[in-house]
Amino acid sequence: MADVESLIWFIAKTNPRCEGRAVKSLTHAGIETFCPMQTVRRKQWIKGKRRSKDVQKPLFTGYVFVGLDPDNMAFGVARRCDGIGSFVGISGAPLPVSGARVCDLMAAQDMGMFDHREGHNRIVFEVGEQVIIDGGWIDGEAATVTILPRKIGQDATVEVDGRKVRLPVEKLRKVA
């Protein structure tokens, strides 16, 4: 497995509902791939009873990130892989994506930010942890968590430049 940031990343458009097939085919061809997945709870009727189960679905339906070695840009091999329709680009030229952005998506998936199940704590913070505020009048500011909410829906208290501020937990993100 190559270093994620050393690869040049592109976005491949897959055939309908073929993200898994495309990832498997590209991996078999020796090409690095990443398909960010989200977890959702799907409700369905089974034998007259309403049941729910957790399902993994692609975050970007119909798209897969493809990492190619800068020394060997194997677009022909990637295009011939099963499940791949085309590459996202301008005037037929594939458009590269920053390796740092792909790393950020991988880190976000690892932290559970794409877990959309109801009542599921996506990110767990600890008192004293450094966070970044995401949105509002202090967007992008570094802060320290001082008080965590006891119930879902309550605000957390963070300290920014010596002042305590109450914010929704959804407005906080971990320092990478």
TrEMBL record:
InterPro entries in the record: NGN-like_dom, NGN_dom_sf
Keyword Transcription applies: yes
Keyword terms of this UniProt record: Transcription
One Pfam assignment: NusG
NusG-like N-terminal domain ranges (all copies): 6-109
Domain of life: Bacteria
Gene Ontology annotations of biological process type: DNA-templated transcription elongation
Keyword Transcription in annotation: yes
Protein's recorded name: Transcription antitermination factor NusG
Organism encoding this protein: Roseibium suaedae
